[in-house]
Amino acid sequence: MNISLFQDVFLSYLKDKNLIKEPKNLYEPVDYILQLGGKRIRPVLTLMAASIFSENYKKALPAAFAIEMFHNFTLIHDDIMDDAPLRRGEATVHEKWNLNTGILSGDAMLILAYQYFENYAPVIFQKLAKLFSKTALEVCDGQQLDVDFETRNNVTIPEYIRMISLKTSVLIGAALKMGAIVSEANEEDAQKLYDFGFNLGIAFQLQDDYLDTFGDPLTFGKQVGGDIIENKKTYLYLKTLEVANTSDQKTLTDLFNQKPMDSSEKITVVKELFKKNDISKHIKNQITNYTNASFAILETIRISDTAKKELKEFGVDLMDRNI
Which of 136, 160, 213, 305 matches a 20 to 30 Å C-alpha distance to 272? Predict the structure, then answer.
């Protein structure tokens, strides 16, 4: 279960895809976002899961590609909704082309994702499509909650965890379960792999929230402070309201009730409030808790100790990342 091998195999598969066709203004943005790089976490997890239950893990490549296609579709539309200028250190699709192109190319990617499931026999196709439809709708639910939270002043931490579970975690869980489905694992083990990925996904998103505020702009690949600019009610914001004094609470809520704006002063003040209230410690504790929860589930899956070790190492590396 060499992670680098899975990455190389997937990138080779991606390279062989001739995604640019007519009309080019529809398909060039699709190729652009897919070629920007990224961590390729989801397709790698699909291949890893497939390799646990079958020597022929490459048969999971179409499912892995579908997951990556869908994930990047959500990124295009997320960037439009957030008016984000950068993705993976490069111009976002709507900035490089225009808003209409971003919307339409994203729509095409969702349809293309479904098409890759047609590579499988009817029974496997049905299982994959059912899981994918459920997951895709959950991601939309999560995205809407994320938007709703921007104008709400009474968001709770449990509500936030539910939102990121829908927006991020379900897709990581689905990526693993799809690999198991392709390799015809039993339902119990496939679901436990999903649950492992689901908890890991919460930890992953919390780490992403931390990096959005405290990450290095040179390695993070996105605009640092973007969540603050957009008044995102992340765990950092919500925990600060929970533990801060009345004065700090008022300063923070006043800043987040302003119209979203790209202000270095706003980012600086909010970061100082986070630091003053030791929010880094709180969020890192939560990251550890959800990571450990995922590892506890992993121990109950009937797979080899080697497979468990590799999946655990993958999780540890994910949480230690700075991009």
Answer: 160
